[in-house]
């Protein structure tokens, strides 16, 4: 678990440094990258960067726990953003990706690697003139883990990010 956390932190740090060095100043509703927190069924850190045009990469490092299990996971999502006519700063997006992490069943004390195939559908809003980005999305997943393989449709979350 400590190795996975160290590797995940390294990946997020490298992404942040490389994108920060390439970031261009933007005005108004546009932003190149954003980093912040994701809150919902799973809580964690999110980093979104636009690759080209409307295509973005969202990297999420999150933790989820309930009475039966806990999961620590790194998720990468490829997203395609689309503008809303007449609503500056507001976009809707969809995409897909995958996740890797660790899983622990609290009832049986079994644990192991956790893998997932993830989808995403959401709204993204950049506040005009402020370095704040908000995203509200639904992230269903197909999980592959010991004692916990199946579909999960409960992945709603709110991301609050600092945009640069």
Helix and strand arrangement:
Blueprint: H1 2-22, E1 33-40, E2 43-52, E3 55-65, E4 69-83, E5 90-105, E6 111-126, E7 132-138, E8 141-144, E9 150-152, E10 156-163
Antiparallel strand pairs: 1-2, 1-10, 2-3, 3-4, 4-5, 5-6, 6-7, 6-8, 7-10, 8-9
Question: Explain this structure to me?
Answer:
This protein is mainly beta. It has a single domain (2-163), classed as Porin. 13% of the residues lie in helices and 60% in strands. The protein is built from one helix and ten strands; from the N terminus they run H-E-E-E-E-E-E-E-E-E-E. It has one helix at residues 2-22; strands spanning 33-40, 43-52, 55-65, 69-83, 90-105, 111-126, 132-138, 141-144, 150-152, 156-163. The chain has an eight-stranded antiparallel β-barrel with strand order 1-2-3-4-5-6-7-10. Strand 8 and strand 9 (150-152) form a beta hairpin. The longest helix has 21 residues, at 2-22. The chain is elongated, with a radius of gyration of 16 Å. Mean pLDDT is 86; it is low at 18-27.
Q: How much β-strand is present in the residues?
A: over 45%
* CATH class call: Mainly Beta
Percent helix among the residues? 10-25%
CATH architecture: Beta Barrel
Total tally of structural domains: 1
Count of individual helical segments: 1
Give the uncertain stretches in residue-range form. Answer: 18-27
Can you list the strand order of the major beta sheet?
A: 1-2-3-4-5-6-7-10
Write down the overall geometry.
elongated
- Which fold name corresponds to the CATH topology? Porin
| Sheet having the most strands | 8 strands, antiparallel, barrel
Structural class: mainly beta
Mean pLDDT: 86
Radius of gyration: 16 Å
Total strand segments: 10
Order of helices and strands: HEEEEEEEEEE
C-alpha end-to-end distance: 31 Å
């Amino acid at each position: 678990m400590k190795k996975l956390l160290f590797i995940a932190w390294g990946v997020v740090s490298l992404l942040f440094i490389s994108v920060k060095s390439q970031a261009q100043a933007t005005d108004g509703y546009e932003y190149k990258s954003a980093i912040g927190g994701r809150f919902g069924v799973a809580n964690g850190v999110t980093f979104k960067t636009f690759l080209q045009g409307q295509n973005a990469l969202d990297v999420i490092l999150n933790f989820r726990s309930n009475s039966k299990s806990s999961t620590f996971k790194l998720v990468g999502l490829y997203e395609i953003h689309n503008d809303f006519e007449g609503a500056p700063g507001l976009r809707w997006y969809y995409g897909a990706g995958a996740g890797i992490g660790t899983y622990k069943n609290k009832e049986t004390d079994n644990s192991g690697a956790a893998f997932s195939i993830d989808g995403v559908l959401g709204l993204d809003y950049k506040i005009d003139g402020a370095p704040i980005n908000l995203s509200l999305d639904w992230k269903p997943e197909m999980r592959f883990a010991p004692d916990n393989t199946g579909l999960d449709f409960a992945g709603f979350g709110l991301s609050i990010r600092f945009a640069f």
